[in-house]
Design goal:
Elements: H1 3-16, H2 19-24, E1 27-35, E2 40-43, E3 46-50, E4 53-58, E5 63-68, E6 75-83, H3 87-105, E7 109-112, E8 115-119, E9 125-128, E10 131-134
Parallel strand pairs: 1-8
Antiparallel strand pairs: 1-4, 2-3, 2-5, 5-6, 6-7, 9-10
Helix pairs in contact: 1-3
């Protein structure tokens, strides 16, 4: 068998395979925002800037997104991968080779949720090192759980 038919056959198979990778790519942009803005964004234990930010993440992996802002509770969300509808294109046009290419590269997946919009909750206690700092407020939020109350002791003059 000559080289020309083999090369043509190989190019034909590659050209018709991996529909999802061709359409989606192996990475996905995920917009991350917070209220208030300026929270530190950490994805898979690596810092990636502050909100608002758009990150280009691999489709084939699950990701843990964490937002931290001083004075607010940390916010954490899991980005999970789900199968993209373009996988059906592989079954029609690319067959098993296309499906394998999309699975290895991650093109057959999409990340969910596609955007993270975090409402950060104000913290009433902050940990720094080994200590715990309590913040005292004059007007409590009705949603807070009461765990104690300071009372004034009588003053005696002698």
């Amino acid at each position: 068998m000559s080289r020309k038919p083999c090369v043509f056959l190989l190019l034909s198979v590659l050209g018709l395979s991996s529909c999802a990778t061709i359409v989606n790519g192996s990475r996905q942009e995920v917009a991350i925002s917070s209220t208030p803005t300026g929270a530190t964004v950490t994805v898979d234990n690596q810092q990636h800037g502050v909100t608002p930010v758009t990150l280009d993440l691999t489709r084939k992996d699950h990701h843990t997104v964490r937002l931290d802002l001083q004075g607010y509770e940390p916010y954490e969300v899991q980005l999970t991968r789900k199968t993209s509808g373009w996988v059906w294109g592989n079954l029609v046009f690319g067959g098993l080779i296309g499906l394998a290419v999309d699975a290895i590269g991650g093109g057959m997946y999409k990340l969910s949720p596609e955007a993270v919009n975090a409402e950060l909750a104000r913290s009433t206690a902050m940990r720094r090192g080994d200590g715990l700092h309590v913040i005292v407020v004059l007007t409590p939020d009705p949603a807070w759980e009461k765990i104690g109350q300071l009372e004034r002791s009588p003053v005696s003059f002698r």
